[in-house]
Amino acid sequence: MSSRKLWDITQRLRANLPVWPGDTAFSHQQTWAMDDGSPVNVSKLTLSTHSGTHADAPLHYDPSGEDSAAADLAIYCGECLVVDARNTGAAIEVGDLPHLHSADRVLFRTYDSFPHDAWDEGFTAIAPEAIQWLAVQGVRLVGIDTPSLDPQNSKTMDAHKAVLAADMRILEGLVLDDVPEGRYELIALPLPIVGVDASPVRAILRELP
Ligand SMILES: N[C@@H](CC(=O)c1ccccc1NC=O)C(=O)O
Ligand SMILES: [Zn+2]
Ligand SMILES: [Zn+2]
């Protein structure tokens, strides 16, 4: 058994999970219940594709983009750099970015303490120029602990558009409270749901060997 330390960086999917204003609340309903004499318990889920910790598929911001089922899983697992981006203001700017020393994947921590119980409408975004700069450095995947790369009131989705232009991929809603800055192995795989624009992921970081 490997003794490499694991960090679960996934929000719990549960009733009262904060969701994007106006989006579908998370819930589960029992379809069959052992309490009612069924041999097993079976449930159904009601949820937004952007519930909790999730991977945006390009279809979210490009009408002809790939869906969650088409995801190249190699992008979602491998070495990553966790960057402490607390105290950066409304958006992470180029000047906030550290030297990457070659990283294919970068995850940004903006919260001291992740807001598990309330929607934070003033979350930190990422400036489109910062996305472009990351792309030039060779970054293929950008992750953040906030619900979106763009501000909540954005109508133009400039950071998502910059991701599209550079053919990068996105993880949102990560929980990085317990993760010191540094390098890790990331595993965060979208479900192969055909025709949809995003998928919840179980995201973990693992100590490098
Ligand atoms: N950009 C956010 C989500 C987003 O924009 C959104 C999610 C659910 C319902 C509405 C949304 N945006 C509406 O303008 C994301 O990528 O998860
Ligand atoms: Zn999303
Ligand atoms: Zn997004």
From TrEMBL:
InterPro entries attached to this UniProt entry: KFase/CYL, KFase_sf, Kynurenine_formamidase_bac
Annotated metabolic or biological route of this protein: Amino-acid degradation; L-tryptophan degradation via kynurenine pathway; L-kynurenine from L-tryptophan: step 2/2
Superkingdom to which the source organism belongs: Bacteria
One Pfam short name: Cyclase
Residues engaged in binding Zn(2+) 2: D56, H160, E172
Residues that hold Zn(2+) 1 according to the record: H50, H54, D56, E172
Record text on cofactor binding: Binds 2 zinc ions per subunit.
GO molecular function, one term: formamidase activity
Secretion signal, residue range per the UniProt entry: none
Annotated positions binding substrate: W20
Cofactor(s) needed for function: Zn(2+)
Gene Ontology biological-process entries: L-tryptophan catabolic process to kynurenine
Subunit structure comment from the entry: Homodimer.
Entries under HAMAP family matching the protein: KynB
PANTHER family: CYCLASE-LIKE PROTEIN 2, KYNURENINE FORMAMIDASE
Stated role: Catalyzes the hydrolysis of N-formyl-L-kynurenine to L-kynurenine, the second step in the kynurenine pathway of tryptophan degradation.
Family: Belongs to the Cyclase 1 superfamily. KynB family.
Protein's UniProt name: Kynurenine formamidase
Species: Pontixanthobacter rizhaonensis
